[in-house]
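We were asked to recover a plausible sequence for a given structure. The inputs and outputs are reproduced exactly as logged, with field labels preserved.

PROBLEM: sequence recovery
POSITIONS: 252
GIVEN STRUCTURE:
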């Protein structure tokens, strides 16, 4: 069983990357309704600010250490070096292992163009992967009829894994709301769709190890992300310092 360590108000799941992959695929194969959140600094600060969102993370089956700072703090508290378990790395790893195990996947979110690029790459690199379906919902609140139709389509496709890319916190709220309605392991993976589709580049491994991925994304989208990264990162450090001065909890 993967252990957990508290970072701010959220319990982060810790352990080797390969164990995350195996656990997620087991959740999918069990045909139960589960969901996985990939936590970075922005998500943890949002959970601190919003009790309802904090509850969603607390109910998740796994909360992976997606961001470098989150992984480092969780590992420091666990007493070993915890590697990142980022959505951008989980998506290709899970797809490859799903193909090997004969499990199916479904992609929900972003645009039709992105989904077509994902399917094209998967069919080229993983010809045995079972793609149960895709859906690009409109970038607006869905009507009850649309929501019901999308949920019914996913249920009819009956995937083992459901990758959800609606952006944080929308994708996490969507997964929590659909627990019990979708018999799959749902994963909120956000930007991972664009990366897998080849429409957004990742920094080299050495730059990621220096926690520079946030700076790269800020450079790409300064207007949209300046507040998230400059203000939120500072807030995270302040809250972390506060937490370090009080007793912490650990789950095994």
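RECOVERED SEQUENCE:
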């Amino acid at each position: 069983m993967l252990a957990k360590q508290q970072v701010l108000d959220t319990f982060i799941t810790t352990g080797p990357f390969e164990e995350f992959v195996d656990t997620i695929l087991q959740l999918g194969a069990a045909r139960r309704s589960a969901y996985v959140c990939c936590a970075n600094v922005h998500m943890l600060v949002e959970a601190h600010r919003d009790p309802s969102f904090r509850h969603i993370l607390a109910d998740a089956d796994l909360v992976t250490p997606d961001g470098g700072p989150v992984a480092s703090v969780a590992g420091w508290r666990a007493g070993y070096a915890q590697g990142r378990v980022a959505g951008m790395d989980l998506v290709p790893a899970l797809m490859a292992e799903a193909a090997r195990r004969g499990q199916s996947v479904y992609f929900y979110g972003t645009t039709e163009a992105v989904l077509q690029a994902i399917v094209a790459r998967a069919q080229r690199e993983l010809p045995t992967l079972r793609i149960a379906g895709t859906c690009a919902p409109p970038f607006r609140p869905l009507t009850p009829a649309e929501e019901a139709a999308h949920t019914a389509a996913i249920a009819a496709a009956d995937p083992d894994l459901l990758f959800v890319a609606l952006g944080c916190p929308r994708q996490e709220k969507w997964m929590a709301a659909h627990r019990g309605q979708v018999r799959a392991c749902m994963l909120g993976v956000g930007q991972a769709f664009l990366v897998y589709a080849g429409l957004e580049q990742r920094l080299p491994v050495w730059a990621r190890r220096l926690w520079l991925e946030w700076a790269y994304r800020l450079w790409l989208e300064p207007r949209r992300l300046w507040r998230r990264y400059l203000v939120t990162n500072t807030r995270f450090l302040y809250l972390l310092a506060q937490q370090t001065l009080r007793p912490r909890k650990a789950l095994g």
